[in-house]
Amino acid sequence: MYATNYHCAGSVNEATGLLTANDEAKILPGGQTLIPTMKQRLSAPSDVIDISRIETLRGVGKDGDAYVIGAGTRHAEVAGHAGLQVDIPGLAALAGKIGDPHVHHRGTIGGSIANNDPAADYPAGMLGLGATIITSKREIAADDFFTGLFETALDEDEIITTVRVPVPQKSSYAKFPNPASRYVMAGVFVAKLADGSVRVAVTGAGADGIFRVPEMESALSGNWSADAVAGIAVSPADLLGDIHGSAEYRANLVTVMAKRAVVAA
């Protein structure tokens, strides 16, 4: 690892101040991405700003017809939250499938969303549920937040503080993980929102990151069943292809995972 300055922020204001003062600083939420990339010398921030001890960034609470989840909330906390298990089971199940036990108990929802890895699970959940990402500066709809591979609408001096997730009528997530790395090769989050609209979000397969499937959304709006999406295939032209699976293979996985998610919901 390269030399770096470590800061343990006590508040969001302190963390944003440190970000502003150091052009090459990086936020450290749970460390499940930043620390490995620093060890491999793929990232060399001048300053590391640890926000893991800011208590206001932790916790899950219900606010009317939505849940507000702190950005520093661990995957295990989301997965084990009794209210989410009942009201948004798709999100609780998604969190429960992330990584090994170490990642499960150290990784955070905010860190996952901010990093926007193309094989991450949470971005699909946020997009599928029509969540709102709340930062130290503003509120951003999930549809506008995720902009490409490892890219988001976050400014350099902006920190995710919470996410607001509306309670849907139904929700579920199904994924096909790489058996070695456990990273998702194709994951599909389906939800029927309170207003009756349907959203289908895909992760792990898109060449440009997560995306929605309007054809599946339309089909499920008229007929919520696996049969409704069974004949719908996404174009492999827009999908990833690598040693683990071709674009055509991932295209088939998207349809299969969509069917499984609908059945589970």
Describe this structure in words.
The structure is a single chain. By secondary structure, the chain is α+β, with helices and mostly antiparallel strands. It has 3 domains: 5-50, Uridine Diphospho-n-acetylenolpyruvylglucosamine Reductase, domain 2 (2-Layer Sandwich), CATH 3.30.43.10; 55-166, Uridine Diphospho-n-acetylenolpyruvylglucosamine Reductase, domain 3 (2-Layer Sandwich), CATH 3.30.465.10; 170-264, Enolase-like, domain 1 (2-Layer Sandwich). Helix content is 35%, strand content 25%. It contains 12 helices and 14 strands. It has helices at 12-21, 34-39, 75-80, 82-87, 89-96, 101-106, 109-115, 122-129, 142-145, 214-222, 226-230, 247-264, and strands at 5-8, 25-28, 47-50, 60-63, 66-70, 132-135, 139-141, 146-148, 151-152, 160-166, 170-177, 184-192, 198-203, 211-212. The protein has a 5-stranded antiparallel beta sheet with strand order 4-5-10-6-7. The radius of gyration is 18 Å and the shape is globular. 45% of the residues are buried. The mean pLDDT is 92.
- What's the domain count? 3
Radius of gyration over C-alpha positions, nearest whole angstrom: 18 Å
The CATH topology assignment of the largest domain is Uridine Diphospho-n-acetylenolpyruvylglucosamine Reductase, domain 3
Strand order of the largest sheet: 4-5-10-6-7
How many distinct beta strands? 14
Q: Can you give the helix content as a percent range? A: 25-40%
CATH architectural grouping of the largest domain: 2-Layer Sandwich
Biggest sheet, in brief? 5 strands, antiparallel
Proportion of residues in extended strands: 15-25%
Element-level helix/strand string: EHEHEEEHHHHHHEEHEEEEEEEHHH
Regions with little confidence, pLDDT below 50 for 5+ residues: none
**Which class do the helix and strand fractions yield?**
alpha+beta
Overall 3D form: globular
Mean pLDDT: 92
The CATH class of the largest domain = Alpha Beta
**Straight-line distance between termini:** 45 Å
What's the tally of helices? 12
